[in-house]
Amino acid sequence: EPVSCRSAEESDIDDIMLMVRQARNSLKKHRVDQWQGDYPTRDDFLSAISEGECHIIMYGSKTAGVFCLSEKPEEAYDGLTDGKWHSDGKYCTVHRCAIEAGFRGTGLSDYIFSFSEQIARDKDALAVRVDTHRKNEAMKKLLKKCGYTYRGNVLVTSEEGHDPRRQAFEKIL
């Protein structure tokens, strides 16, 4: 089946929230304190959809993944500690990515980054940045495989009451 990427639409929200629930359960099973509260919410995704930042990965006619890509500077990244960013220019940030449970382990997650990098290039970005929970070994392994380099640590405020420490990664395009 061909793999493709398209902008998410409001009609995708139920599929998106299913993938979020599946990811939340997987993270919990692996004792990762990420996405264990309300975040990310339906409204987070609806807002990203309306801003053109939410994207769906399709495997043939099946919804296989979701990611958000923003070209707005990420405030938390200004507080990077224990390292430094290698790009001073425009960057895009990948947020809220998940693969449908039936597609986990198939290599489809690589497409989150290949598609996000292509979109970022189209927006004249010089780099793509992403952060993940320090215990999210699956995501860290994926980032390394896709050519991202650990740059330091940041604190995120989106998940109140949960561990705010994240490891930050960057790939120069």
Summarize the structure in words:
The protein has four helices and seven strands; from the N terminus they run βααβββαβαββ. The protein is an alpha+beta fold and 173 residues long. The longest helix has 17 residues, at 13-29. The two termini are 28 Å apart.
Span from first to last CA? 28 Å
Helix content: 25-40%
Shape designation = globular
Strand order of the largest sheet: 1-2-3-4-5-7-6
Please, what is the average pLDDT?
A: 93
Given helix and strand content, the structural type is alpha+beta
List keywords for this structure.
alpha+beta; single chain; 4 helices; 28% helix; 7-stranded mixed beta sheet; 29% strand; 173 residues
Produce a short descriptive summary.
The chain is an alpha+beta fold and 173 residues long.
